[in-house]
Amino acid sequence: MKKTIGKSNLEGTVTAPGSKSLMQRLIVASLLSRGTAIIHNPAANQDSFHALDCALILGAEVNEDENNSLHIEGGKQAPEYELNVGESGLGMRLFAAVGAMSGYEVKLNGMGSLLERPLTEFEKVFPQLGAQINTTKGKLPALIQGPFTGGSAKLDGSLSSQFLSGLLMALPLAENDTVIEVDSLKSKPYVDMTLEVLDTFGIRTMHKDYQRFTIPGGQAYTPAEVTVEGDWSAGAALLVAGAVASKNGIFVDGLGQKFTQADQAITGALLFAGAKLMNQDGKYRIQAHKLRGFNFDATDCPDLFPALAALAVACDKPSKITGVHRLKHKESDRGVVIQSIFKEAGIRVDLDGDVMTVHPGEVQCCTIDSHNDHRIAMAGALLGLQGGPVTITNAEAVQKSYPEFWDDLEVLMG
């Protein structure tokens, strides 16, 4: 699918889609609960659909009521354990750990770019906790044999916090207590979200400065009733769209603050850049304004890189974004891809170690490929709004996190 986006003046109100990061954690917590959990405003995207499929295979019963809320009855086991998590890195790490709580052999697989994303940290950690994982050269497909028994382990958190999140969700069900020593943990806000979900479902954990996590064993998940809040990762693209292409301002609704979301940091970046941003009764109003170059550390929120880079194009001088090392193992090698597609649009992007420098400029007419990366597809649209027009190929990549993105953008374009 192709989409062509040209210079526009956006107006109107859109609602951010539900958070896929929160949704996947809630699905896992519901699966592990003894009873029926209720999820209101469920996020409808590919990653969440694959997580639901995995929960069903693992024995959950899922029903939808007249209000489109999901009722998930967990606490069961099924003899068939062959899971496919699609292209979800979070799903891969969550369900690898959950699979290791089973006494059965679990087959775990995925598709697309996920087959190139690493599982090597689990190869080191699982044997320390009584389980085994046999990967394919450190990647999917993998065979997992549990159950975890608990104990102590050391975890390198520099690649992704998702390994820790998976362990935090599975190990409360182990027979014994667990202590995990974590080195160089990145994306701590995502760990906070995991801990908040665990607390909501009655699970106790403790940590000291995000370096030593203590997980009491023999616990039981208590089913909860939870509302999925809007996705700040998707909301970031909408807010940047308003900052670069709305003279009178647009409204973005649905962005909650109950659960921690790393990408809420976009508000700080927008304010650093001089954007006009206001929270009005739960709706965020964003308006185009003279933007200034900014420096921003996105190490703990790397999904913001594409939107931040597009924002920087509209600034008065170069902007620097730190944390490039977090981009290699995404749906694409995002640092390199951002540099490439921005070059096609006539925009200079420099990569120097861990720092990306984006130089402002006039967006030229071009065609870019999304590289099957949802956030790159959205970044292409943000470029097009500033000039171009820009044609994005493989635009359907947005299905992974924000299926309604093109429809919502069309609403704002009028």
In short:
Helix content is 30%, strand content 24%.
Written overview of the protein:
A hairpin with a 2-residue loop joins β20 and β21. The strands form 6 sheets. The protein has a 4-stranded mixed beta sheet. Strands 4-5-3-14 form a 4-stranded mixed beta sheet, with helices on one face. The radius of gyration is 21 Å and the shape is globular. It has 2 domains: 201 residues, UDP-n-acetylglucosamine1-carboxyvinyl-transferase, Chain (Alpha-beta prism), CATH 3.65.10; 208 residues, Enolpyruvate transferase domain (UDP-n-acetylglucosamine1-carboxyvinyl-transferase, Chain), CATH 3.65.10. It starts with a strand and ends with a helix. α1 packs parallel to α2, α3 runs parallel beside α5 and α7 packs parallel to α9. By secondary structure, it is of the alpha/beta class. The model has no long low-confidence stretch (mean pLDDT 95). It has 12 helices and 23 strands.
